[in-house]
Amino acid sequence: MAKKKVSSVPPPEKINKRPDWDTYFMDIVELVSKRSTCLRRSVGSGLVRDRRILATGYNGAPSKLQHCLDIGCLREQLKVPSGERHELCRGLHAEQNVIIQAAMHGVITKGSTLYCTNHPCVICAKMIINAGIVHIVIRDGYHDKLAAQMLKEAGISVKQI
Length: 161
Fold this sequence. Notes:
The protein is an alpha/beta fold. The chain has helices at about 20-30, 70, 75, 95-105, 120-130, 145-155, and strands at about 45-50, 50-60, 115-120, 135-140, 155-160. It contains six helices and five strands.
């Protein structure tokens, strides 16, 4: 009686599919966004070069300052619409925080890719340009035509997944 050959390869529907690199890093910055202390929008970001994470950041008040979660949102109190009057916010944007984190730890940002849960605003776009970041991958859009225009003019590609 011949022995039945048993395959060690699971059927195709049982194979755990690995995410592509963009999805992998986007899922990580989605997790980073959960550390946000902003009452309006939770945003996470990460800088990556050669498939290695350089730094991460999320939006919230600077270190050693009280968070909006604890004391309330000035922009909410003043009824400031989303995308306007960024200077009236206690918090740093996730993109600002990731660039600052890289700088604090001596990590070069030039030539890196920024993964972010949202499209950068114009203030962050200017920082991204000067930080030498060359690609941006986002999950959600953000209506800031000037930011999109400046990134395009600087030759920085933006990909939404």
